[in-house]
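Thread: Newbie trying to understand structure tokens

Hi all, I'm a second-year student working on a class project, and my supervisor (Dr. K.) asked me to get a predicted structure for one chain before our next meeting. I've only ever worked with sequences, so writing a 3D structure as a token string is new to me. If someone could post the tokens and maybe explain what I'm looking at, I'd be very grateful. Here's the chain:
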Amino acid sequence: MKIDLTDTTASKINKALVQGRRAVGTPAVGMVLTLVIVTDEENAYDALKAANEASREHPSRTLVVIKRVSRSPRDRAKARLDAEVRVGADAGTGETVVLRLYGEVTDHAQSVVLPLLLPDAPVVVWWPVNAPTDPAQDPLGSLAQRRVTDTYAAEQPVRELTARAQAYTPGDTDLSWTRITPWRSMLAAALDQVTCEVTSVEVEGEEFNPSCELLAMWLADRLNVPVKRSSSSGPGLTSVRMDSSSGPIVLDRADGSLATLSIQGQPDRAVALKRRDTAELIAEELRRLDPDDTYASALRYGVERLGGGATSRTPAPAEQPAENAEKKAAPAPAAKKAAPAKKAAAK
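---
Reply by user tm_fold:
Sure, no problem. This is what the structure looks like when written as tokens:
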């Protein structure tokens, strides 16, 4: 069931929700949280589709906040709120309200969302694109216990990790971190099977994929060993190689779906490591609403401490001859000064 409201208010939207629940025969509210999606018109459909699929596991009230850009000065000065209420089969197992904000109300989205939150229920805010630099200080982010961003959607994903580390607040999380959960589980299980000491690690993946950097930082932080970041053609994260005292441990995924785990002295094993869609990632994040200390520790390790790839600090080849030239040219002034002294001694 869909109810369209034009130039409406929050109270009218709440009345429409009650009316819709009665019409479909479910007057009771059986939702466990409120999911606020802050996006634009272009990405609203994909984000809402993922949220509806995740609502099968976590029944929730989904509020989609779309800030529309007004072209004329008159439209920008006029505030207007349009809403689309979806209940029943059109909203998964919960309720969906699509909010389109126009004019001055776009700067006060929190005042529109606050009356629509479920009482005594946790709030999760998700930015599929264009996430703020400090989600906890955002007016909508301050309403939530959990704030979900995705650095993969940023213009410079790897540099965005540094900004996230500086502005981290307990409750922040990243879908790029969620994508490597199966990799972290498999690598931890592989180290439990052998008694060894890891000496070095190499993580290989796409060049502009922040999940590769996060996995490398997590391994470096936990194992306290040097980790090299290498680039590959993908898709996504392709392989992890750990050199240990008992031989190499390699987890390789070349096709994006099936990986091979190789341990010295053991037969190779096939491991299912399929690349997951956004609905599965959101469903995983909604399972836990407490701060993720492991993510915070890995994020604060720092991208600049990784070796190889774009993070390497090896001087450029063009710089090395200049340094050698300076070293060779340094004794020349001393030789010129010594020449007059020899002539004076000869006289």
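A couple of things are worth pointing out once you decode it. Confidence is low (pLDDT under 50) at residues 309-347. DSSP finds twelve helices and 14 strands in the chain. Feel free to ask follow-ups in this thread.
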